[in-house]
Amino acid sequence: MVLRVSSGRGILEGLGFASKVWTARGLTVLSDTLLDRFPPIEVRKIPFDFPDDIDPVWNPGHHEWSHMINGVSLTMPYLEPFLIATLREAANEIDDPAVLEEIAAFVGQEGQHFRMHRAYNELLKANGYPQLAEVEDFMKESYARIKERRSLAFRLAYSAGFESMTLGVTRWLVEDRVKLFAESDARVASFALWHMVEEVEHKRVAFDAYQAAVGTYWQRALGVVTGSMHVFLLARKGCIVMLKADGKWRDPRSRLRLWKRTAEFFAQILPGAVRSALPGHDPRDEPDPEWVTQWIAGYGKRSDVDVAPLINTFDGRLDVPFDLDGNPT
Ligand SMILES: [Fe+2]
Ligand SMILES: [Fe+2]
Protein backbone atom coordinates (compact mmCIF):
# COMPACT_ATOMS: atom_id res chain seq x y z
CA MET A 1 0.00 0.00 0.00
CA VAL A 2 1.39 3.39 -0.90
CA LEU A 3 0.94 6.49 1.21
CA ARG A 4 -0.43 9.12 -1.12
CA VAL A 5 1.40 12.28 -0.13
CA SER A 6 2.63 15.11 -2.26
CA SER A 7 6.23 14.43 -1.24
CA GLY A 8 6.10 11.30 -3.37
CA ARG A 9 7.64 9.15 -0.64
CA GLY A 10 5.88 5.87 -0.06
CA ILE A 11 5.21 3.46 2.74
CA LEU A 12 5.29 -0.22 1.78
CA GLU A 13 3.63 -2.60 4.09
CA GLY A 14 5.47 -5.74 5.05
CA LEU A 15 4.07 -9.22 5.28
CA GLY A 16 2.36 -9.03 8.65
CA PHE A 17 5.31 -9.18 11.01
CA ALA A 18 7.14 -6.04 9.93
CA SER A 19 6.75 -3.10 7.62
CA LYS A 20 9.16 -1.34 5.33
CA VAL A 21 9.46 2.36 4.78
CA TRP A 22 11.17 3.81 1.75
CA THR A 23 12.55 7.29 2.18
CA ALA A 24 15.11 9.36 0.35
CA ARG A 25 17.61 7.88 2.77
CA GLY A 26 16.90 4.29 1.85
CA LEU A 27 14.87 1.30 2.93
CA THR A 28 14.26 0.85 6.65
CA VAL A 29 12.61 -2.08 8.38
CA LEU A 30 10.23 -1.03 11.11
CA SER A 31 8.32 -2.88 13.78
CA ASP A 32 4.53 -3.07 13.61
CA THR A 33 4.26 -0.83 16.64
CA LEU A 34 6.11 1.93 14.84
CA LEU A 35 3.95 1.91 11.76
CA ASP A 36 0.74 0.93 13.55
CA ARG A 37 -1.20 0.27 10.37
CA PHE A 38 -3.77 2.89 9.68
CA PRO A 39 -5.26 3.95 6.38
CA PRO A 40 -3.01 6.30 4.45
CA ILE A 41 -3.65 10.02 4.66
CA GLU A 42 -4.58 11.47 1.31
CA VAL A 43 -3.91 15.05 0.28
CA ARG A 44 -6.90 16.13 -1.83
CA LYS A 45 -7.11 19.25 -3.91
CA ILE A 46 -10.84 19.81 -3.99
CA PRO A 47 -12.09 22.66 -6.17
CA PHE A 48 -14.45 24.28 -3.68
CA ASP A 49 -15.51 27.63 -5.01
CA PHE A 50 -16.86 30.67 -3.20
CA PRO A 51 -18.56 32.93 -5.73
CA ASP A 52 -19.97 36.35 -4.77
CA ASP A 53 -23.51 35.08 -4.44
CA ILE A 54 -22.72 33.17 -1.24
CA ASP A 55 -24.38 34.93 1.66
CA PRO A 56 -22.11 35.03 4.76
CA VAL A 57 -25.28 34.10 6.67
CA TRP A 58 -25.07 30.80 4.81
CA ASN A 59 -27.62 29.11 7.07
CA PRO A 60 -30.64 31.43 6.97
CA GLY A 61 -32.40 29.64 9.83
CA HIS A 62 -29.34 29.94 12.09
CA HIS A 63 -27.85 33.43 11.87
CA GLU A 64 -25.61 33.14 14.94
CA TRP A 65 -24.42 29.65 14.01
CA SER A 66 -23.44 30.90 10.55
CA HIS A 67 -21.20 33.49 12.17
CA MET A 68 -19.80 31.02 14.69
CA ILE A 69 -18.56 28.90 11.79
CA ASN A 70 -17.41 32.04 9.95
CA GLY A 71 -15.43 33.04 13.06
CA VAL A 72 -13.73 29.63 13.09
CA SER A 73 -13.00 29.94 9.38
CA LEU A 74 -11.35 33.31 10.02
CA THR A 75 -8.80 31.71 12.37
CA MET A 76 -7.73 28.97 9.96
CA PRO A 77 -5.27 30.91 7.75
CA TYR A 78 -3.42 31.81 10.97
CA LEU A 79 -3.87 28.67 13.04
CA GLU A 80 -3.12 26.11 10.35
CA PRO A 81 0.14 27.69 9.08
CA PHE A 82 1.15 27.79 12.77
CA LEU A 83 0.42 24.05 13.09
CA ILE A 84 2.33 23.35 9.88
CA ALA A 85 5.36 25.39 10.98
CA THR A 86 5.34 23.73 14.41
CA LEU A 87 5.21 20.19 13.03
CA ARG A 88 7.86 21.00 10.43
CA GLU A 89 10.13 22.28 13.19
CA ALA A 90 9.38 19.17 15.25
CA ALA A 91 10.35 17.01 12.28
CA ASN A 92 13.96 18.14 12.83
CA GLU A 93 13.85 16.43 16.24
CA ILE A 94 12.21 13.20 15.01
CA ASP A 95 13.96 10.16 13.53
CA ASP A 96 10.97 7.84 13.16
CA PRO A 97 10.26 7.66 9.40
CA ALA A 98 6.62 6.68 10.00
CA VAL A 99 5.98 9.88 11.96
CA LEU A 100 7.87 11.93 9.37
CA GLU A 101 5.62 10.50 6.66
CA GLU A 102 2.56 11.40 8.68
CA ILE A 103 3.84 14.94 9.14
CA ALA A 104 4.33 15.31 5.37
CA ALA A 105 0.70 14.32 4.78
CA PHE A 106 -0.52 16.55 7.62
CA VAL A 107 1.29 19.53 6.09
CA GLY A 108 -0.34 18.76 2.73
CA GLN A 109 -3.86 18.53 4.14
CA GLU A 110 -3.63 21.56 6.42
CA GLY A 111 -2.10 23.55 3.56
CA GLN A 112 -5.19 22.84 1.46
CA HIS A 113 -7.49 23.73 4.34
CA PHE A 114 -6.11 27.15 5.13
CA ARG A 115 -5.91 28.16 1.47
CA MET A 116 -9.61 27.31 1.04
CA HIS A 117 -10.51 29.14 4.23
CA ARG A 118 -8.55 32.18 3.10
CA ALA A 119 -10.59 32.27 -0.12
CA TYR A 120 -13.82 31.94 1.88
CA ASN A 121 -12.72 34.63 4.34
CA GLU A 122 -12.04 37.02 1.45
CA LEU A 123 -15.67 36.49 0.46
CA LEU A 124 -16.81 37.34 4.01
CA LYS A 125 -14.86 40.60 3.94
CA ALA A 126 -16.10 41.50 0.45
CA ASN A 127 -19.72 40.62 1.26
CA GLY A 128 -20.36 42.95 4.16
CA TYR A 129 -17.69 42.47 6.79
CA PRO A 130 -14.54 44.45 5.84
CA GLN A 131 -13.91 45.03 9.57
CA LEU A 132 -12.76 41.42 9.81
CA ALA A 133 -9.40 42.58 8.44
CA GLU A 134 -8.64 44.05 11.88
CA VAL A 135 -9.46 40.75 13.57
CA GLU A 136 -7.16 39.03 11.10
CA ASP A 137 -4.34 41.42 12.06
CA PHE A 138 -4.95 40.54 15.70
CA MET A 139 -4.79 36.80 14.91
CA LYS A 140 -1.61 37.23 12.91
CA GLU A 141 0.08 39.07 15.79
CA SER A 142 -1.18 36.56 18.32
CA TYR A 143 0.43 33.63 16.50
CA ALA A 144 3.60 35.61 15.82
CA ARG A 145 3.89 36.25 19.59
CA ILE A 146 3.42 32.56 20.43
CA LYS A 147 6.02 31.58 17.87
CA GLU A 148 8.49 34.13 19.21
CA ARG A 149 7.97 33.56 22.94
CA ARG A 150 7.01 29.93 23.40
CA SER A 151 9.14 26.80 23.22
CA LEU A 152 8.71 24.11 20.59
CA ALA A 153 7.39 21.81 23.35
CA PHE A 154 4.65 24.33 24.23
CA ARG A 155 3.71 24.87 20.58
CA LEU A 156 3.65 21.13 19.87
CA ALA A 157 1.48 20.51 22.94
CA TYR A 158 -0.86 23.29 21.76
CA SER A 159 -1.00 21.65 18.31
CA ALA A 160 -1.63 18.13 19.64
CA GLY A 161 -4.18 19.47 22.13
CA PHE A 162 -6.08 21.46 19.53
CA GLU A 163 -6.11 18.54 17.10
CA SER A 164 -7.44 16.20 19.81
CA MET A 165 -10.20 18.64 20.65
CA THR A 166 -11.29 18.88 17.01
CA LEU A 167 -12.31 15.21 17.10
CA GLY A 168 -15.15 16.14 19.45
CA VAL A 169 -16.13 19.03 17.18
CA THR A 170 -16.11 16.69 14.19
CA ARG A 171 -18.30 14.12 15.90
CA TRP A 172 -20.75 16.86 16.83
CA LEU A 173 -20.87 18.47 13.36
CA VAL A 174 -21.15 15.14 11.57
CA GLU A 175 -23.66 13.45 13.85
CA ASP A 176 -25.83 16.56 14.27
CA ARG A 177 -25.37 17.61 10.63
CA VAL A 178 -29.09 17.70 9.90
CA LYS A 179 -29.75 20.10 12.77
CA LEU A 180 -26.64 22.21 12.02
CA PHE A 181 -26.53 22.25 8.22
CA ALA A 182 -29.95 21.33 6.79
CA GLU A 183 -31.30 23.82 4.26
CA SER A 184 -28.09 25.82 4.37
CA ASP A 185 -25.87 26.81 1.43
CA ALA A 186 -24.48 23.46 0.24
CA ARG A 187 -21.20 25.06 -0.83
CA VAL A 188 -20.39 26.17 2.72
CA ALA A 189 -21.81 23.07 4.44
CA SER A 190 -19.88 20.71 2.13
CA PHE A 191 -16.68 22.71 2.59
CA ALA A 192 -16.98 22.69 6.40
CA LEU A 193 -17.75 18.96 6.55
CA TRP A 194 -14.90 18.09 4.14
CA HIS A 195 -12.53 19.88 6.52
CA MET A 196 -13.90 17.77 9.37
CA VAL A 197 -13.39 14.56 7.37
CA GLU A 198 -9.71 15.31 6.92
CA GLU A 199 -9.32 16.31 10.58
CA VAL A 200 -10.41 12.77 11.43
CA GLU A 201 -8.08 11.35 8.82
CA HIS A 202 -4.99 13.03 10.30
CA LYS A 203 -6.16 12.89 13.92
CA ARG A 204 -3.06 11.05 15.16
CA VAL A 205 -0.33 13.13 13.53
CA ALA A 206 0.23 16.06 15.92
CA PHE A 207 -0.06 13.65 18.86
CA ASP A 208 2.55 11.32 17.37
CA ALA A 209 4.85 14.27 16.63
CA TYR A 210 4.48 15.47 20.23
CA GLN A 211 5.13 12.00 21.64
CA ALA A 212 8.17 11.53 19.40
CA ALA A 213 9.71 14.97 20.01
CA VAL A 214 8.63 15.80 23.59
CA GLY A 215 6.49 13.17 25.30
CA THR A 216 5.95 14.91 28.66
CA TYR A 217 2.45 14.13 29.91
CA TRP A 218 1.54 17.28 31.87
CA GLN A 219 2.51 19.60 29.05
CA ARG A 220 0.39 17.64 26.58
CA ALA A 221 -2.58 17.80 28.95
CA LEU A 222 -2.13 21.56 29.30
CA GLY A 223 -1.96 21.83 25.51
CA VAL A 224 -5.55 20.60 25.23
CA VAL A 225 -6.65 23.64 27.23
CA THR A 226 -4.33 26.24 25.69
CA GLY A 227 -4.89 25.09 22.09
CA SER A 228 -8.67 24.81 22.41
CA MET A 229 -9.28 27.99 24.37
CA HIS A 230 -6.97 30.17 22.30
CA VAL A 231 -8.68 29.21 19.05
CA PHE A 232 -12.12 29.51 20.66
CA LEU A 233 -11.41 33.06 21.85
CA LEU A 234 -10.01 34.12 18.47
CA ALA A 235 -13.01 32.67 16.62
CA ARG A 236 -15.37 34.38 19.08
CA LYS A 237 -13.77 37.74 18.24
CA GLY A 238 -14.61 37.34 14.55
CA CYS A 239 -18.11 36.11 15.33
CA ILE A 240 -18.86 39.14 17.53
CA VAL A 241 -17.63 41.57 14.87
CA MET A 242 -20.05 40.04 12.36
CA LEU A 243 -22.99 40.00 14.78
CA LYS A 244 -22.32 43.66 15.64
CA ALA A 245 -22.24 44.55 11.94
CA ASP A 246 -25.65 42.87 11.57
CA GLY A 247 -27.09 44.76 14.55
CA LYS A 248 -27.59 41.47 16.42
CA TRP A 249 -25.10 41.84 19.24
CA ARG A 250 -27.47 43.85 21.48
CA ASP A 251 -30.49 41.72 20.59
CA PRO A 252 -31.31 39.54 23.66
CA ARG A 253 -32.90 36.79 21.55
CA SER A 254 -29.86 36.63 19.31
CA ARG A 255 -27.55 36.56 22.34
CA LEU A 256 -29.59 33.74 23.85
CA ARG A 257 -29.29 31.70 20.65
CA LEU A 258 -25.55 32.33 20.62
CA TRP A 259 -25.17 31.24 24.26
CA LYS A 260 -27.29 28.17 23.65
CA ARG A 261 -25.18 27.01 20.71
CA THR A 262 -21.96 27.85 22.57
CA ALA A 263 -23.14 25.78 25.56
CA GLU A 264 -23.96 22.96 23.16
CA PHE A 265 -20.46 23.24 21.69
CA PHE A 266 -18.82 22.90 25.11
CA ALA A 267 -21.13 20.07 26.16
CA GLN A 268 -20.25 18.20 22.98
CA ILE A 269 -16.50 18.66 23.07
CA LEU A 270 -15.90 18.39 26.80
CA PRO A 271 -15.97 14.56 27.19
CA GLY A 272 -13.50 14.09 24.32
CA ALA A 273 -11.31 16.96 25.52
CA VAL A 274 -11.13 15.42 29.01
CA ARG A 275 -10.29 12.00 27.52
CA SER A 276 -7.56 13.52 25.39
CA ALA A 277 -6.01 15.18 28.44
CA LEU A 278 -5.76 11.90 30.37
CA PRO A 279 -2.57 9.85 30.65
CA GLY A 280 -2.46 7.02 28.12
CA HIS A 281 -4.63 8.87 25.61
CA ASP A 282 -4.14 7.94 21.98
CA PRO A 283 -6.29 9.59 19.25
CA ARG A 284 -6.36 6.19 17.49
CA ASP A 285 -8.74 5.00 20.20
CA GLU A 286 -11.33 7.63 19.23
CA PRO A 287 -13.81 5.98 16.83
CA ASP A 288 -14.28 7.59 13.43
CA PRO A 289 -17.88 8.63 12.63
CA GLU A 290 -19.40 6.35 9.99
CA TRP A 291 -20.31 9.32 7.76
CA VAL A 292 -16.59 10.21 7.66
CA THR A 293 -15.49 6.70 6.63
CA GLN A 294 -18.25 6.64 3.99
CA TRP A 295 -17.09 10.00 2.65
CA ILE A 296 -13.45 8.83 2.40
CA ALA A 297 -14.39 5.52 0.76
CA GLY A 298 -16.75 7.15 -1.74
CA TYR A 299 -14.41 10.00 -2.62
CA GLY A 300 -11.55 7.56 -3.21
CA LYS A 301 -13.51 5.91 -6.03
CA ARG A 302 -15.06 8.90 -7.76
CA SER A 303 -13.91 9.92 -11.19
CA ASP A 304 -15.22 13.49 -11.39
CA VAL A 305 -12.56 14.92 -9.08
CA ASP A 306 -12.72 18.26 -10.92
CA VAL A 307 -16.13 18.89 -9.39
CA ALA A 308 -16.53 19.85 -5.73
CA PRO A 309 -18.45 17.16 -3.81
CA LEU A 310 -21.55 19.05 -2.73
CA ILE A 311 -23.93 17.61 -0.17
CA ASN A 312 -27.65 17.88 -0.77
CA THR A 313 -28.64 19.96 2.25
CA PHE A 314 -32.34 19.54 1.42
CA ASP A 315 -32.54 15.73 1.43
CA GLY A 316 -33.35 15.52 5.14
CA ARG A 317 -30.32 13.31 5.87
CA LEU A 318 -27.31 15.14 4.42
CA ASP A 319 -25.78 11.92 3.19
CA VAL A 320 -22.27 11.82 1.73
CA PRO A 321 -22.50 13.11 -1.86
CA PHE A 322 -21.47 9.83 -3.50
CA ASP A 323 -22.12 6.13 -3.10
CA LEU A 324 -19.49 3.56 -2.15
CA ASP A 325 -18.56 3.17 -5.83
CA GLY A 326 -17.86 6.89 -6.04
CA ASN A 327 -20.89 7.74 -8.17
CA PRO A 328 -22.46 11.12 -7.36
CA THR A 329 -25.76 10.76 -5.50
FE1 LIG B 1 -7.39 21.55 9.05
FE1 LIG C 1 -5.90 19.38 11.67
Strand order of the biggest β-sheet: 1-2-3
* Strand residue content: under 5%
Percent of residues in helical segments? Answer: 55-70%
Helix-strand sequence:
EEEHHHHHHHHHHH
- What is the CA–CA distance across the termini? 28 Å
Secondary-structure class: mainly alpha
**CATH classification, class level:** Mainly Alpha
Oligomer: single chain
Total DSSP E strands: 3
Low-confidence stretches: 1-35
Number of domains: 1
Spatial shape: globular
CATH architectural group:
Orthogonal Bundle
CA-atom Rg in angstroms: 20 Å
Tally the helices. 11
CATH fold-level name: Ribonucleotide Reductase, subunit A
The biggest beta sheet, please?
3 strands, antiparallel
Q: Roughly what is the average pLDDT, rounded to an integer?
A: 89
Give the cofactors and ligands: fe (ii) ion
Write up this protein.
This protein is mainly α and 329 residues long. It has a single domain, classed as Ribonucleotide Reductase, subunit A (Orthogonal Bundle), CATH 1.10.620. Helix content is 61%, strand content 4%. The protein has 11 helices and 3 strands. It has helices at residues 32-35, 63-91, 97-126, 132-149, 152-175, 177-181, 186-201, 205-213, 217-245, 252-276, 290-301, and strands spanning 10-12, 19-23, 26-30. The protein has a 3-stranded antiparallel beta sheet. Strand 1 and strand 2 form a beta hairpin. Bound molecules: fe (ii) ion (2 copies). One fe (ii) ion (FE2) is lined by residues 80, 110, 113, 195, 199.
